[in-house]
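Every protein is a chain of amino acids, and every chain bends into a shape of its own. Below is the pair of lines this work produces for a single protein:
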Amino acid sequence: MGALFGLTDVLRFQGTPYMSLAFSEGYRNPVGGHISECFQLWYLLRLAMPKLAEAVDSNRVYDLLVNHDNGELGNGDVTAYSQAQGVDSGKMGEKLVMEKLVKGLPNVFRDQILKDHQNFELPSDDDLEAQIARLVDSVSGNLVVLLRGDDLAPYSEIAAKILGLRFISKAARLIQTLEARDYFEAGDEVRALAEHHLQEYNIRGVDINPETLAKK
């Protein structure tokens, strides 16, 4: 597991054109830092979204986040920008890296780490915590782009595609799961969060409807 210290060397957003200015100014977003950001973000979201926090096991959300990108130690981060252009996500390779990382650990630790990683990557329809962890992961990426990215207007089409694939779909699924369990107020909190993010992208020049997830 000592290889995990290498997570500070694996950088996110490499080759993403609307991050070029930030990179030229020395900005870096290592995977290890991203995981830490996800922890801080979930802590803040719990405070801002109390009904959502009440609906889930918060500790399990942290458990799912802590290892979710460790598999990128193998082949690096396949960016959302690359995936939106059809590049394979490399998830199968990440699974093999995870199995290698935990080799030698006591079975109970190894099995739980691999289970958490699998549940994060392929959450079931009734796994609220995994769906939340995936949304937190996406929100973290959104914030990097909104706070550090270049002018998004020239990349409006692909940015909208990324939001659809990586954010809107996750938020919509989580809202559906929450409402199926009668957590309507929690669903409204997620909807408000998603609409705010889409509004911010709209302001930054991305042609996307902020009311995509509005109640019908």
